[in-house]
Specification:
Blueprint (H helix, E strand, L loop, with lengths): L13 H9 L6 E2 L16 H13 L12 H12 L4 H4 L3 E7 H16 L5 E5 L4 H9 L3 E5 L1 E2 L4 E2 L1 H8 L7 E5 L12 H14 L2 E6 L13 H6 L6 E6 L11 E7 L3 H16 L8 H11 L1 H31 L16 E3 L4 H11 L1 E2 L5 E3 L8 H13 L2
Parallel strand pairs: 1-12, 3-4, 3-7, 7-8, 8-9
Antiparallel strand pairs: 2-10, 5-6, 9-10, 11-13
Helix pairs in contact: 2-11, 2-12, 3-11, 5-6, 5-10, 7-8, 11-12, 12-14, 13-14
The chain binds (2S)-2-hydroxybutanedioic acid.
Length: 399
């Protein structure tokens, strides 16, 4: 029976890392997948996480199953990190958080929940978006549509188009927004624009769905909650998928969270009973270790302070690499004004390179970036920036 199965194409992002690994070129550069690298090109274990790991090891008494939604201590820590400890959503008990294997795991559980419990809803995705978004909803059987988010002419937010699209979306549909550091464009609404988008979403009777994978990589851990908090209205519903891959450097531990907010505690208890069914039929209950690390860091004053500094260092290094990248593009004579790259936020630069130029970078220079032209700025170093910009100059000039 297997002989009739056709091969699937490689993944739009992780498939590039597979190709990168197979590439024999000694000078190859991987700027595809969103993984932070330090100035030496290594993806470090954060010191706060390393120390938390020692504490976890010392106090761990069992490796028995966790509850279906994971540990309550982790859920409380995640809610406090996103909403703030005294926030009405937390105090009223109208939010429920489940620990999921990574942000992708939380997206899939949320998608299964939408398919089962909100079967008439369409999920509206930003155009462009992370290539895995449409795949996840399709795999769960949830219909998706797109709304314009990015304006290629200004390299900025297509705010008026997004607002106009929201005003046309059918009530009862779900609208996805990226909590900060929009993937792939790096363009976020301003605080004022968040308020206006949130007003429109609320007035239209849409369910906001926030993908929040880069908290701390735009302006700061607290500042990056501006969009999330704009969407928290009295009695209003919300879905948030968060990931700690990037801000804790816990990529391989797969630590994410799914938070749903309902009108009141009784409603969220019912909703959470359905989420538990989605989890149980998917991976049963989550793996413990990564969430233990996050809970330990967030619950220990010294480690938390150290972690916040480490996140700031990663953020500052990426900001620095953005400026260096733009300066080096100019120095290498790349035609055009690339200063917009310094206004983008988070790990990625939406460079404007065409699919043909991206392909030429790979074929001729062993430089791997995503087909949309998305470059992982967090992978640029002082050592590789020169070669990168020379290669971009050559492909842009068509030489
Ligand atoms: C990315 O966009 O590169 C990251 O979110 C990693 C992934 O799983 O695609």
């Amino acid at each position: 029976m297997f002989e009739q199965i056709q091969p699937a194409p490689r993944d739009a992002i992780l498939g590039l890392t597979e190709s990168f690994r197979e590439d024999p070129s000694p000078n190859k550069i991987n700027l595809s997948v969103g993984v932070y690298q330090d100035s030496t090109g290594k993806t470090p274990i954060l010191e706060s996480v390393r120390r938390a790991g020692q504490l976890v090891l010392e106090r761990q008494k069992t490796m028995s199953y966790l509850p279906i939604p994971g540990s309550p201590a982790y859920a409380a820590a995640v809610q406090q990190l996103m909403f703030g400890a005294g926030h009405e959503v937390v105090v009223s008990g109208r939010a429920a958080t489940s620990h999921t294997p990574g942000g992708t795991g939380s997206l899939r559980v949320a998608a299964d929940f939408i398919r089962q419990q909100l079967p008439k809803a369409t999920v509206w995705l930003t155009q462009p978006t992370w290539p895995n978004h449409p795949q996840i909803f399709a795999a769960a059987g949830v219909p998706t549509k797109s709304y314009t988010y990015f304006d290629a002419k200004t390299n900025g937010l297509a705010f008026d188009e997004a607002l106009a699209a929201i005003q046309q979306m059918p009530a009862g549909d779900v609208i996805m927004l990226h909590g900060c550091c929009h993937n792939p464009s790096g363009i976020d609404p301003t605080p004022d624009q968040w308020q206006r988008l949130a007003d429109a979403i609320h007035d239209r009777g849409l369910l906001p769905f926030l993908d929040f994978a880069y908290q701390g990589f735009a302006d700061g851990i607290e500042d990056d909650c501006v969009g999330l908090r704009a969407l928290c209205r009295p009695g209003a519903e919300l879905i948030v998928c968060s990931s700690f891959s990037k801000n804790f450097g816990l990529y391989c531990e797969r630590v994410g969270a799914l938070t749903l907010v309902a009108k009141d505690k009784a409603t969220i208890d019912t909703v959470q009973s359905q989420i538990k069914v989605c989890i149980r039929t998917n991976y049963s209950n989550p793996p413990a270790h990564g969430a233990e690390l996050v809970t330990t860091v967030l619950g220990n004053a010294e480690l938390r302070c150290m972690w916040e500094e480490e996140v700031a260092q990663m953020r500052d290094r990426i900001h620095g690499m953005r400026s260096l990248f733009v300066k080096t593009l100019q120095a290498k004579g790349v035609p055009g004004d690339y200063s917009f790259i310094t206004r983008q936020r988070g790990m990625f630069s939406f460079s404007g390179l065409t699919p043909e130029q991206v392909e030429a970078l790979k074929q001729k220079y062993a430089i791997y970036i995503v087909g949309s032209g998305r470059i992982n700025v967090a992978g640029i170093t002082e050592q590789n920036v020169g070669r990168l910009c020379e290669a971009i100059a050559a492909v842009v000039k068509g030489t």
